[in-house]
Amino acid sequence: MKAVGGGIGLTVGSNAFATRAKAVDSVTVRQNNRDLRGQQERCIISEDLHSALKMTINGQVRVGGQNDETKYESGLYTVTETSLESTTVEMSKDGLDRLGFTNNSSGFVDPNAPHPEYETRRMADKKDEYVEILVDNEEQSDLVACAPHGGWIEYRTDAQSAYVATALDVTEWSCAGYNSGGGAYDRWHITSTAIDRRSFPKLDSISDREFTHAVSFHGFSRSGIVIGGNADNHLKKKVRDKIDSLTNGKYDITLVDSDSPYSGTSSENFVNWLTKDGNGLQIEQGWEARTTDWKTIATAVAKVYRNEIG
């Protein structure tokens, strides 16, 4: 995905993504710990880049290195603001380390998050890419099942969203990212509160649907299962109890409050703003739960929502 080619003032890529908005080449990737300390998924771009990319603040961009200088070809970052620097992307030390940048590396910026031409998990896996998946009849608004970190980012979570959507004939919105030999999380993870509808065309297409319910499947490094989101506790307890029953009490299942880092209660969390009343449900799962029992957990969730949506 290295960008090459000519432009006015900035060098604009004419690579494999030539059919969509162009990447900007000859960018300096610079360290900034003053404004971005510890924020490994965020960056600041210069005003000239902001104008050339025709993007908005708080959206996602791909940043990559030139001449195979970085560990990975490219990865996703959320743009927090602009600077007066010329043709520059700024990141914290942690942000640089995500992809293996060094300070003042030469790189490129692409304004598109999911690949615009690849639409299947199979193609993304084959190409070490990141895709957006939408299965939708453009009418139903009872439930949307989601997995923003599917593929190898948080393994098996998009299989769960697909299972629930198919079982209930409802909408599925998922993203799937891959990287041969590991590194999909480093390249493609964007936290749920930062996901910007303007950076995900298929998400944007359903963002005003005002679903009655939304459920989002996730993975984390802890053991057990954590159920959060702004859905009412009555629904959360139903999901907890059904998962506990179908897995024979195998996992410690916790309902979290708003003080937990896994609470999922923020109004900026996409699973909440996808719903009419801001009442999405978020399920975090440890490795064993989402690999050994991914289908059982998805079945439990489907059974609960079947009763909720009638």
Automatic annotation (TrEMBL):
InterPro entries: Gamma_PGA_hydro, Gamma_PGA_hydro_sf
Any Pfam family the entry gives: Gamma_PGA_hydro
Domain of life the protein comes from: Archaea
Name recorded for this polypeptide: Uncharacterized protein
